[in-house]
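request received
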Amino acid sequence: MSTFAEEGLREIDELSSSSGETFRVSIAGLEELEQLEAKGQRLEFQGGEIRGEIKARAIDTEARMLALYQLAALKARKAVDTDQIAKIWKRPLQVYEFSFVLISSLIARGHGNPDVMHLHESVRKMRDQVRWIYDLHANQAS
Amino acid sequence: MISEAEIRRLAELYSTSAEALDPLAPDMEQRRRAFDLEVEGLYSKYSPRGITLGQFRSKAVQMCVKHLRRDLPPDERRARETSI
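response:
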């Protein structure tokens, strides 16, 4: 692979790494907010504010996950062989798999905020799509 | 063995599924399924001896990528080969 192609892959890998950490922190933050909301239910005003913050963070997290997908998709469209395409999607796939597990665990612990549920569904769709693309290009028969 | 028209059709399906920019599109799962079904249909049609469906699928994907990149001008193709 050329130096330029390696740089493109490095860009995706670095973004995946930083995004993975951002998503982990965001999802942990969503759980904390939900716990605060549950404790402050009697304060409608406060509860309303927290709910708004959860919604904003869930939307922001989804947008960032979509941005990672789209950057990888644009890189893959430029790649001229399937091996390159598999390498491009490898790290983003790990990020989606990891994020989906985190949000699933959050929901399994009883957090059922509608915005978190929506984020969970969006991450599942992204993970399914990326897993399919990766499987399509990885382990190519010679 | 696969005709030019079949490759073109498969490449179109590949483009709308594997190269889609919106993974949240409501019909994304159907697009993936359409590609998979097309590959399975071609595999059944040609029944290549000694080649598994997985191997056939890999070759089909390679053909799609090659088909979609082949119309690029030479300088654009060279640029893509060295930069992703």
